[in-house]
What does this fold into?
Amino acid sequence: MGDGKLSSKDILKMINKKAGRTIAFSGDQENPADIKDWISTGSRWLDSIVCRGQLAGIPVGRVTEIAGLESSGKSYMAGQVAHQAQAKGIKVLYFDAEATMTSEFLDKLGCDMEGDNQIIILQPEDIEMVLETVELCMSNDPDNRYLFIIDSLAMTPCRADLEKDFNPQSSMAQKPRVLSLGMQKLMTSLSRTQSTLLVLNQLKTNINVSNPMMMLSQPWFTPGGKAIIYAYSLRIWLTGLKGKKTFIEDENGYRIGSEVKAKLEKSKFGTQGRICNFKILWAGDNVGIMNDESLLTAIKSSNRLTNSGAWFKLEGYETKFQTATFPKLMKSDANFSKLVYDIIDEEVIRKFENKTGKAEDFYDLEEEVSNEKNKIVEK
It folds into this structure.
C-alpha cells in the first residue's frame, strides 16, 4: 500500500512466516475450525437435533462428551460412533480405562476388528498416557483422521493418583489441571488434522452438603473438573425417561435393554437443551441403538401421520401399519423410509430452524421450569 501500511494479505504472510506454518486465515479462506464433517451417533433422531438446520452427529475436529447414568448406553453409543467413523476411513483408537471393552462387543456393533482399518484398543495407566498418545498420533501422522475415544474419563486416574495413597484428598485437584493443560495443547491439533476426541463420562449425583437446594436445581455433575467443560463443543447427557419404565423386557420378562433420554447439555451449534429418546438393546444378537423404532415417536406430531387405534397411516403410503411393523418397513421398503426421513427433516430440523413448531416439542420444558423454581428457592 502507498501509505506504508500493510495490507491484510501482507499481515497474513508475515504472521504465517513467523509461525512456520499457516495459523492465520482471511475471511474468504477455508478455516480448520469450520465443521466439515460429522460422524453419526447411530440415532437419526439424535443426529437431527445436534446442529441447527442440518443433519449432523458428532462434530469432526472437535471435543464431544457423552455422559450418562449407569446402564444408559454410553459404551454402546461410542461403539456405534466408532463403526460410523470407520465407514468414513477414520482411524479409531479406543482408550479402555475401565478394562471392560472386548473385540466381541465392538464386533457386534458392526466395528471392523480386522484389516488395516481395525480399531486399536488401549488400556492406559493414566490420563497423561492418553493425552500423550493422542498428541503422538496427530503429530506423527497428520494426514490421517483419527477418532479418539476415552472410556471413561471418570475412571481414568492421573499419575498423581497412582503415586499416592487411597485418600481422595491427596491428589484432588491434579486431574483437572492435567486435563486443562491437555486441552490447551490438543484442541488446535484436533482441528488442523480433522481428528475427533470423544469423551465418555459418568453422571454423578450432585451432593452439595453446604447448599442442599443445589442438588434439586442441578441434580447431576460430571467428574474431570470445570476446565474441560469449556473444551466441549457438544455434551450429550443420557438419562432415564421421567415417569416411564426404564428397562426393556423380552416376552419372558428378561431385561434386554433400556430406554433413555438424550439431552444436549451443551451445544455450540444453536441447539442447547434439545432432547430426544431412543431404546438401546444390550442383550441378545442385536445390540445397540434401536434407531428405526425411535423415529416413529419423532414424527408423531406431524400432520402427515394419522392413527386410528393401533393403526397408523403415512401420507403418500397406501398401506396402514402398526408400531411393531414400523422398523421392518424402514428396513425393507425404500419408499417408506424416504417418506419417514422427509418428515424427520421437516418436523425435527426445519421446524426448529424456522421456529414454526411448538417449543415443548423440542425441549423438556417441565424439567427446566422445575429446576428454575428450585434455583429461586435456593436464592
